[in-house]
Design goal:
The complex is a heterodimer of chains A (about 90) and B (about 400). Chain A is built from one helix and six strands; from the N terminus they run E-E-E-E-E-H-E. Chain A has about 90 residues and is an alpha+beta fold. Chain A is elongated, with a radius of gyration of 17 Å. The N and C termini of chain B lie far apart (about 75 Å). Chain B has about 400 residues and is α/β, with parallel strands linked by helices. Chain B is about 30% helix and about 25% strand. The chains are: A alpha+beta (about 90), B alpha/beta (about 400). Chains A and B meet through strand 1, strand 2, helix 1 and strand 6 of A and helix 8, strand 9 and strand 10 of B.
Chain lengths: ~90, ~400
């Protein structure tokens, strides 16, 4: 039985290793892709149970809705920032 | 001017008649002197000293020195007219250039910087490209001879601010996030927090990590930072040019293959920097003809086997190769890739073995490689046509 839940996001996959970033403190962790739920890939949002402060990868669940919501928020932020782009070449 | 009246003997009339003599209006002169910032002062003094002879009001006689003041007044008006009207017309239209200081002072919007011209190239002045030793990740500082700075990636969270300060950086004119993986933007939030940043460029691709979201929040709240999307364009960093290469049109599920590609050009010296491009994106750069013959190549993706493209190396033909890499469990750099890079280039340096690496590239194409103060490699001049020629 897990004590708590923590959100981890797959930052990237290097070979067979998933590099995860914790949502709360940006801790990074390398985990074999094989221990994560099938379908895990770059950008996946995982809800992972913990026991004694250690992630229980077997309990990890993909939260696809959360991933899509984050992508929508990021797109909106990018659209907002693009309005600042003067376009063309720049002389600094 | 006021007049003083009194009776006195007139030589013309032969009798005592009413005379008039000019009396300076000192309040008026004081005001004129103040208004003209002292230019009127000599007129005031002259008129006070030489008030003119008394004028007989019967036979008449014009005051002596009125003309001096009037003439000086005409000269003053003429000079004022020249300065305000004629001189600007002779000089031609006002310059539309916007200085860096004006932008920083908020006097003009950043979007108005385009009318400025790139700085002229001095054959002796090198561009400095420093690969910071940030472990497994990238952080590359480009410094133009004129002192402009560009930071390409910010490492994996390693605190690069002391290194930047040690290198004399107090402002970053441009920050580029090649792609939003944590080993490239891990230190970005801290960079944005710690140093003034004028322009920020990324590949326009969203990500879902907390690291990326923190950077986006910071950018959104910092309205003084001008965001640039990585579209084909040239960023003139003083006399050094950063050519932004076209990104692939397809959206890859692997953000490595949407890395911002940059060719740093300083006369005949060129460097190719493209984040973590794998063979797929390198192939795209080749297809669109965006890979020039270069002096320096920053090996993409920390020397991983998926970023080794012999076709790319044939075209780029680098003399000097740098791998930004640290301790990792991903097998970077790949031994086979290392062997291939060594066979292509004259020099291969690695941040994990050599620490911080600075390449000084001159406009004639020659270069020197510094580890600290020590020159460990150099190359002769190599004339080239410009990237856009």
């Amino acid at each position: 039985m897990s004590e708590a839940e923590r959100i981890w996001v797959v930052d990237r996959v290097e070979g067979g290793i998933a590099v995860l970033v914790a949502d709360d403190d940006e801790e990074t962790l390398d985990v074999p892709l094989g221990v994560l739920p099938p379908g895990s890939r770059e950008g996946s949002v995982l809800r992972v149970g913990e026991s004694a402060g250690e992630p229980l990868w077997a309990s990890a669940v993909l939260d696809e809705e959360f991933r899509l919501e984050r992508l929508r928020q990021a797109e909106a932020a990018l659209d907002d920032l693009r309005k600042r782009d003067p376009g063309g070449d720049i002389v600094l | 001017m006021a007049h003083e009246q009194f009776m006195r003997s007139c030589a013309g009339c032969g009798v005592s008649t009413m005379h008039v003599q000019q009396k300076p209006n000192h309040i008026l002169h004081l005001l004129l002197s103040v208004f003209t910032i002292g230019i009127w002062l000599p007129v005031w003094v002259l008129l006070s000293l030489f008030r003119g002879k008394p004028q007989c009001m019967t036979c008449g006689k014009k005051p002596g020195l009125f003309g001096v003041g009037f003439l000086f007044f005409l000269v003053l008006i003429g000079a004022f007219g020249y300065v305000v009207v004629a001189e600007p017309l002779l000089r031609g239209p006002a310059e539309t250039g916007v200085s860096r200081e004006m932008v920083e002072a908020g006097e003009v919007a950043p979007s108005e910087v385009e009318p400025l011209s790139p700085a002229p190239l001095d054959q002796e002045d090198p561009v400095l490209i420093t690969f910071l030793n940030v472990g497994q990740g990238d952080a590359i500082l480009v410094r133009s001879p004129e002192g402009q700075t560009a930071l390409i990636d910010s490492g994996p969270g390693f605190d690069i601010i002391p290194s930047l300060i040690r290198l004399g950086v107090d402002t970053l004119d441009l920050v580029v996030a090649s792609h939003p993986h944590a080993d490239h933007i891990g230190g970005m939030w801290q960079v944005l927090q710690s140093l003034p940043v004028r322009f920020y460029m990324d590949n326009g691709q969203p990500h879902t990590t907390a690291t990326y979201r923190a950077v986006m929040r910071e950018l959104q709240s910092r309205e003084e930072i001008t965001y640039l999307q990585a579209t084909p364009r040239t960023i003139n960093l003083g006399s050094t040019q950063l050519h932004v290469l076209p990104l692939p049109e397809y959206r890859s599920s692997n953000l490595n293959n949407a890395s911002v590609g940059l060719v740093v050009e300083h006369g005949s010296f060129r460097a190719f920097l493209s984040g973590d491009s794998e063979r797929s994106e390198l192939g795209h750069f080749l297809r669109v003809g965006a890979v020039p013959d270069v002096t320096l190549l920053k090996v993409p993706h920390h020397g991983a086997s998926d970023a080794l493209s012999r076709r790319f190396l044939d075209v780029a033909s680098p003399e000097l190769i740098v791998i930004s890499v640290g301790g990792n469990s991903y097998g970077h750099p790949n031994p086979g890739a290392l062997f291939a890079y060594q066979s292509y280039a004259e020099y291969l340096l690695r941040t994990d073995l050599h620490g911080e690496i600075t390449v000084s590239g001159k406009p004639d194409g020659s270069y020197e490689v510094f580890l600290g103060e020590t020159i460990v490699a150099s190359g002769a001049e190599r004339p080239r046509e410009g990237v856009n020629e």
